[in-house]
Design brief:
Layout (H helix, E strand, L loop, with lengths): L20 H17 L7 E2 L6 E6 L2 E7 L12 H14 L14 H13 L7 E4 L2 H12 L5 E5 L4 H6 L4 E5 L4 H11 L6 E6 L11 H10 L3 E5 L26 E5 L9 E5 L1 H10 L1 H4 L6 H16 L2 H19 L11 E7 L1 H13 L2 E2 L1 E3 L9 E6 L6 H18 L5
Parallel strand pairs: 3-12, 5-6, 5-7, 7-8, 8-9
Antiparallel strand pairs: 1-2, 2-3, 4-10, 9-10, 11-14, 13-14
The protein binds 4'-deoxy-4'-aminopyridoxal-5'-phosphate.
């Protein structure tokens, strides 16, 4: 085995030529040992529920941290009305479904949840399908809609679940948000494929920037293609009424497929697909993940239904979130740090070098701040960053303490923009 642990990344262990599965697992085990003994962290343990203040076990100590690691953007994981709705779900329907949706595991609360999420986007119940996770919503939808005669044309920064969804079909990627490159692929793919489906995110998960949806929609129509938008980081946050990145473009009822998650703004677990009812019908009854896998349990479904209602009933959470985002981003920008092109609740501090990024992450922990250092393969090798998710439950004092920590670390490690 020829892997140098000092420069290796987790990706290097996916496939090592000549090593069988057990030998690869052994090599990986040794690598993790090496990482741990050199002070690297790869997973911390949260001892309390999801919150902007978390009790965390990090490097053998357990203490309270200000947390920026969850996508609980509006704080709905802990909202008393969401918790109450989940409790009522268990009391009324029990703990689980014990069957897959097509053979007895489709319950009234699944119907209610589909109706609620479809209604949220101004659609009828039969235009929504729910999945166990957002990951499955993307991968299952693409796997059943596109076959080897078709093509997915994807922005290179889309989520891993989209890439997984393309393993049975043809795939071409275009550089992030690059309209010229997208048009070139659309033009050169004309008449070559049966279906051309362009797949983008509304908000990109590592940079927090948005897609130029209107321009992409125009191109897609010009070349007789279809458009799928994964808006997991936009829904509940962007748009006049929180319907996400697409809302203010006026295209909510025109995008062919919208996918999302219940694990971020809605504070729970699950995914959904919104599309024309013929498409949702096809996905609902044909996708292997619907046929062979159980779906959302009762407390999850009833909790999500309440969270969806809260977007309209309690819009002050969204306003507070935006106050926090604007305050925090301005503080980081003012001190010369590079927050890139974000226009959402995902706020990165771009550093570049993966080792310095790891050091920044450790120093932040020393200051009592819990963030995620993001390195290759989640981002390009020289584009490492500290990734933070701002939430409505952060208070000013949390943000100020974090800004002070960055000021201190900036001076120690020289991480300001040149
Ligand atoms: N799409 C994007 C852009 C994401 O960031 C994520 C979650 N990291 C997903 C899909 C998958 O969502 P879930 O966690 O519900 O599987």
């Amino acid at each position: 085995m020829n892997i140098d642990f000092t420069t290796a990344t987790f990706k290097d262990f996916e496939n090592i030529p000549g090593l069988d599965m057990m030998e690869r697992a052994n090599a990986y085990y040794d690598f993790l040992d090496y990482m741990k003994s050199n002070g690297h962290r790869y997973r911390l343990q949260n001892n309390t529920g999801c919150s902007s203040i978390m009790n965390v076990t990090a490097e053998n100590t357990t203490k309270e941290f200000i947390s920026f690691v969850t996508s609980d953007y509006l704080g709905f994981t802990q909202h008393p009305k969401v918790k109450q709705a989940a409790i009522e779900g268990v009391e009324k329907f029990g703990a689980g479904t014990a069957a897959t949706p097509l053979i007895g595991g489709y319950y009234s609360y699944h119907n209610d949840l589909e109706e609620k999420i479809a209604g949220f986007f101004g659609r009828s119940q039969d235009e929504a399908v729910i999945f166990t996770t957002g990951y499955t919503a993307n991968s299952a939808t693409l796997q059943i809609l596109l076959q080897k005669e078709d093509i997915a044309i994807v922005d290179m920064a889309v989520h891993a679940s989209v890439y997984e969804g393309c393993i049975l079909t043809n795939r071409k990627t275009f550089p992030h948000n690059n309209l010229e490159a997208l048009e070139h692929i659309l033009k050169t793919s004309e008449n070559q494929y049966r279906t051309k489906l362009v797949v983008i995110d509304g908000v990109y998960s590592q940079d927090g920037d948005t897609a130029p949806i209107e321009e992409i929609y125009q191109l897609v129509k010009k070349y007789n293609a279809y458009l799928m938008v994964d808006d997991v980081h936009g829904v509940g946050i962007l748009g006049k009424t929180g319907r996400g990145t697409i809302e203010d473009t006026g295209l909510l009822d025109k995008i062919d497929i919208i996918t999302g998650t219940f694990s971020k703004t809605f504070g729970n677990l699950g995914g959904y697909v919104i599309a024309n009812k013929k498409l949702t019908n096809f996905i609902r009854f044909q996708s292997r993940q619907q046929i062979f896998s159980a779906t959302t349990p009762p407390p999850t479904a009833t909790g999500i239904i309440k969270a969806i209602e809260l977007i309209d009933e309690e819009p002050h959470w969204r306003l507070k979130l935006w106050d926090n985002i604007n305050y925090f981003k301005k503080g980081l920008d003012d001190m010369g740090l590079d927050t890139g092109t974000t226009c959402s609740a995902v706020v990165p501090v771009k550093i570049g070098d993966p080792h310095i990024t790891g050091d920044v992450g450790k120093l932040l922990l020393d200051h009592g701040i819990y963030t995620n250092p993001i390195i290759y393969p989640a981002v390009a090798r020289k584009d490492a960053r500290i990734r933070m998710s701002v939430t409505a439950t952060h208070e000013r004092e949390h943000l100020d303490k974090t800004l002070n920590a960055f000021e201190d670390i900036k001076n120690k490690l020289h991480i300001a923009k040149k």
